[in-house]
Write a structure and sequence with these properties.
- The protein is an all-alpha fold.
- About 80% of the residues lie in helices and about 0% in strands.
- It has 22 helices and no strands.
- The chain starts with a helix and ends with a helix.
């Protein structure tokens, strides 16, 4: 059965357009774009509201809370997302993520004090938690082996695109106008997920076989529906765990424990790469680096443009060359970028400050972000969609994103205290060391390129 199904036409001809898969991918990309818009907007916004005499003034400590509050909220969102994925399905969980994202824009529009901005950040974090649990599960279940990596990378590429839009509009528009504009893509992504069907895996798990057949015929129009349904029934019934306790016990088996630890380490390396510090504080970092050849705000915009290039490179190459090469390339580039940034701050601290030296922080900040989107940012979601057994995906996604929220909060909130205690050079050297460890870790990652979910489970 498995051998015959793996040779079906939809697996062997990746060039055919599977419309519903890509419509779901576009909806996921828009959702990630909405998440990225607020993060992109915060870089110029925090620089403005912490400067003298703005209409809305925040202290550096208050700005730090605005930048970091989304991370603990992500923990709460991950729990809601896991429950939603398990009982309602990945598509409906992504619809639910739209509610806190809409609330975040409303809080931003109404913000006249730090408390409203705290609400914006917290609601945004809830949306992130639900989104990052649900979209890898949904895309992993509706995609074929030939398109899975590209679909997840395509969805993640919405983040840098949204960040670019947020950065540009946040630099030149009042926050109220920006909030009204940001409501539009949020509503569009919600409308898309009102129209596409839930994944066939979910319907099979719920015993809704007629709806599962219709879902299969839309997402995989080239397969024999009855045979694919039988395959999914066999695949989803291989584990019979029903309760949370059963799933927790199954999660501790050697195979699942190993896959779960890999997911946690991928999230750890992603957030302790310097990701949050650079994205939230890039303009401030460039000003501290005494960059005057180009205005720091312009460099941030250029970086956001090239972030999208990194995302598209990942989408184009991840199913051609594999997951491991993309991770190794990404971590190697990020390590070099962080190390050179540390060297630049060391030179500044020792009185070396020439005009020609300014290209170092500019190139390093831009290249670091490009390398992030080539591998470090998409790979945790790709592996989450592939490595975990079907009955454990929602639970593992929840645990992974709770952990990711914790490390994101620690890495973001600790940035300013670490700067005050040790200086910029030491902080960026620390990020370089972590990226070197991530580079080594890449050599033990499994390669899942071109494999079905069943083949991956049997690896």
């Amino acid at each position: 059965m498995f051998r015959r199904l793996r040779k079906t036409k939809w697996l062997s001809r990746p060039t055919e357009i599977l419309w519903y898969q890509w419509i779901g991918g576009i909806g996921s990309m828009l959702m990630m774009g909405v998440i990225g818009m607020l993060i992109g907007m915060l870089s110029p916004f925090l620089a403005v509201i912490t400067s003298p005499n703005p209409s809305l003034f925040l202290t550096l400590d208050e700005a730090s809370w605005v930048a970091s509050l989304s991370s603990p909220a992500r923990l709460v969102g991950a729990i809601f997302g896991s429950i939603g994925v398990h009982y309602l399905g990945g598509k409906r969980a992504m619809l639910i993520a739209g509610c806190p994202l809409l609330l975040a824009w409303v809080c931003l529009i109404l913000a006249d004090s730090a408390k409203w901005l705290y609400g914006t950040s917290f609601a945004h974090g809830l949306g992130i938690g639900i989104a990052f649990v649900s979209f890898p599960v949904y895309l992993g279940e509706v995609s074929s082996s030939a398109t899975r990596g590209a679909l997840v990378s395509f969805a993640v590429s919405g983040f840098p695109l949204g960040s670019l839009i947020g950065n540009v509009l946040g630099t030149y528009l009042p926050k109220t106008t920006f909030g009204y504009i940001a409501l539009a893509p949020t509503i569009v992504y919600i409308a898309i997920f009102l129209c596409v069907p839930e994944s066939p895996h979910y319907f099979v798990r719920m015993g809704k076989l007629d709806q599962a057949e219709r879902s299969i015929s839309r997402y995989h129009p080239k397969v024999v529906v009855k045979e694919e349904l039988e395959f999914l029934q066999t695949f989803t019934s291989e584990s019979n765990s029903v309760t949370v306790g059963d799933r927790l016990r199954e999660l501790t088996t050697p195979r699942n424990r190993k896959a779960g630890m890999m997911i946690l380490l991928l999230y750890f390396f992603m957030h302790f790469s310097g990701l949050n510090s650079v994205i939230y504080y890039m303009e401030i970092i460039l000003k501290t680096s005494k960059v005057t050849a180009i205005t720091p705000a312009t460099v941030v915009i250029v970086a956001n443009v090239l972030d999208s290039v990194g995302g598209w490179v990942s989408m184009s190459l991840v199913d051609r060359y594999g997951r491991k090469p993309m991770w190794i390339t990404s971590t190697c580039g990020a390590c070099v970028s962080m190390a050179l940034t540390g060297v630049n701050f060391t030179l500044l601290a020792n009185g070396y400050n020439s005009y020609g030296q300014q290209w170092v922080p500019i190139v390093c900040m831009i290249s670091f972000r490009v390398f992030l989107f080539i591998g470090l940012i998409p790979m945790p979601s790709i592996f989450l969609s592939e490595l975990i057994a079907p009955n454990l995906k929602s639970l593992t996604a929840c645990l992974g994103n709770v952990f990711a929220g914790l490390v994101a909060f620690v890495s973001t909130k600790s940035y300013q205290p670490l700067l005050d205690a040790f200086g910029e050079a030491c902080v960026f050297y620390m990020y370089a060391v972590i990226m070197f460890l991530a580079f080594i870790f890449g050599f033990i990652l499994p390669e899942t390129k071109g494999k079905t979910l069943h083949e991956i489970q049997n690896m």
